[in-house]
Amino acid sequence: MPKLIIPGPEGRIEARYEGNDDESAPIALILHPHPQHNGTMDNTVTFLMFHTFVNAGFNVLRFNFRGVGASEGEYDRGEGELSDAATALDWLQTHRPNARGCWVAGYDFGAWIGMQLLMRRPEINAFISVSPPANLYDFTFLAPCPNSGLFIQGNQDDFVPQDQVFKLVEKLRAQRGIDIDYHVIEGANHFFTGKEKELEGSIRSYIEAAPQLLPPEEEEEPEVEVEDEDVEMDFDELLDSMDAEDGDAADES
Fold first, then answer.
1. Residue 174 lies in a domain
2. The predicted structure's pLDDT at residue 222
């Protein structure tokens, strides 16, 4: 997988992209955890999410926020990182303009950035947020949340209390027109150590069942009743018609 450099707001953005031959396949943008806490696009959870989407047939992009790896710039407390994410999504859409769906998936800090991107880009039609830091960042901007999606958390998460994420989920579930799924992985900590397969399975099962990926139902054309033309004729008219035909036949002979 070759290294990709995308021109960004603060210089180059280091990224990795994997696509397939189907140009109409859905696209997914993967966002990594906090840049100041060793978060990179090669983080175990981020890498797992990336390949889960690839294996599901998506065209997928992950990248390093500004100041991480070979990406230029400095940490900007979320505002600049959101701009980086928007730039990465622009690149992805430019290279796959016919994609039939657009997803964003983030882990930890990346989940917070991903939900903000969701609010600003109406073309995103689904999200996955893994261990969203609802205790550290304000998620009240999700009013209303524009699309359905999935939240995933381990019940042994020492960094993000489960009750904080549950409150966020319940708040979003109260909104109309969207479906919010919430998967709790038993025995998983914040990093899903030893629970990677369970995390992958949770993401994969949600993608496979997602209505956003189903082809639109073809509407059946209503049957049009054709009224029979009135071809009735009385008995005298019928006899006259038959006589005329016999006369024509005699003349020809």
1. yes
2. 57
> Is residue 104 in some structural domain?
yes
Cα-based distances in Å from 224 to 65, 221, 231 = 58, 9, 20
| Average pLDDT, integer, range 215-228 | 54
Tell me the HSE value of 21 on the side-chain side, using a 13 A CA sphere: 0
* Cα Dmax for the chain: 107
CATH number of the CATH domain containing 175 = 3.40.50.1820
* H-assigned helices in the chain: 44-55, 79-95, 109-120, 162-173, 196-209, 235-252
Q: How confident is the model at residue 227 (pLDDT cuts 50, 70, 90)?
A: low
Q: What is the DSSP letter of 121?
A: -
- Domain extent for 147: 3-213
Q: With contact defined as beta carbons under 8 Å apart, do 128 and 105 qualify?
A: yes
- Rounded to the nearest 5°, which phi and psi values hold at 207? -60, -45
The answer to the question of residue 196 being in a domain is: yes
